[in-house]
Amino acid sequence: MENDELLTESPASKLEWFCVRSKPKSEHIAARHLEEVGIEVFLPRIRFQRLTRRGKVWFTEALFPGYFFSRFNWASSFRNVCGTNGVTTIVHFGENWPRIPAQAIEELQRFFGTKSLRELQPELNVGDEVKIASGPFQGLVAVVNKVLPAPERIRVLLDFLGRQTSVEVNVASIIPVAEPRSLALQEPAES
């Protein structure tokens, strides 16, 4: 009887994690369609601010653009997953369809939380170049002069009316010009 159990519990009959490729910028659509038919998905996303013509705007994107993870039974669900709206293919290398270790997915899920979302906050340092996104100095480029002990405040040095001026601004009103030296991951604010 133990031999029969071993034969029925083949690798093709259990739930395993795979990396799924989606159409460009459609990870969330493909993931939602798979969830609607009862297939487990994990789509880690990041949320960050970027300066636009409208000012500072929040963006949410997939951590791995064009990819997400799905857990399904290979033998019974392969065709359904590949045929799902928004899915391009399951990542493979020739005839090798690699499985993602469950421990790796669990670790990512713990890191990204129940909403599968992390918020990126740039860590500002003295000497970083920033652009002021709101207020009377909107659009001006400045250099961080001092990170102040007051919450969410910094002092920047900017060229204004032909001379360098030091002003205090709220961290929420600036955007780093260059890629920040480091990013601090924070839990997203409840909305």
Short structural summary:
It contains four helices and 13 strands. The protein is an alpha+beta fold and 191 residues long.
Report what the structure shows.
The chain has helices spanning 2-8, 27-36, 74-82, 102-112, and strands at 15-22, 40-42, 45-52, 55-62, 67-73, 87-90, 117-122, 129-132, 141-147, 153-160, 163-170, 174-176, 183-186. The protein has 191 residues and is of the alpha+beta class. It has two domains: 2-121, Alpha-Beta Plaits, CATH 3.30.70; 123-185, SH3 type barrels. The strands form three sheets. The chain has a five-stranded antiparallel beta sheet with strand order 11-10-9-8-12, with no helix packed on it. Mean pLDDT is 82; it is low at 1-12 and 180-186.
User: How many strands appear in the DSSP assignment?
Assistant: 13
Largest sheet: 5 strands, antiparallel
Q: What is the spatial order of strands in the main beta sheet?
A: 11-10-9-8-12
Total domain count? 2
Total helical elements: 4
End-to-end Cα distance, whole Å, is 54 Å
Label the CATH architecture of the largest domain. Answer: 2-Layer Sandwich
Mean pLDDT across residues: 82
Helix content: 10-25%
Name of the CATH superfamily of the largest domain: NusG, N-terminal domain
Principal-axis shape:
elongated
Report the CATH C-level class of the largest domain.
Alpha Beta
Quote the beta fraction. Answer: 35-45%
CATH topology assignment of the largest domain? Alpha-Beta Plaits
Order of helices and strands: HEHEEEEHEHEEEEEEE
Radius of gyration: 23 Å
Which consecutive residue ranges, at least 5 long each, have pLDDT under 50? 1-12, 180-186
SS-based structural class?
A: alpha+beta
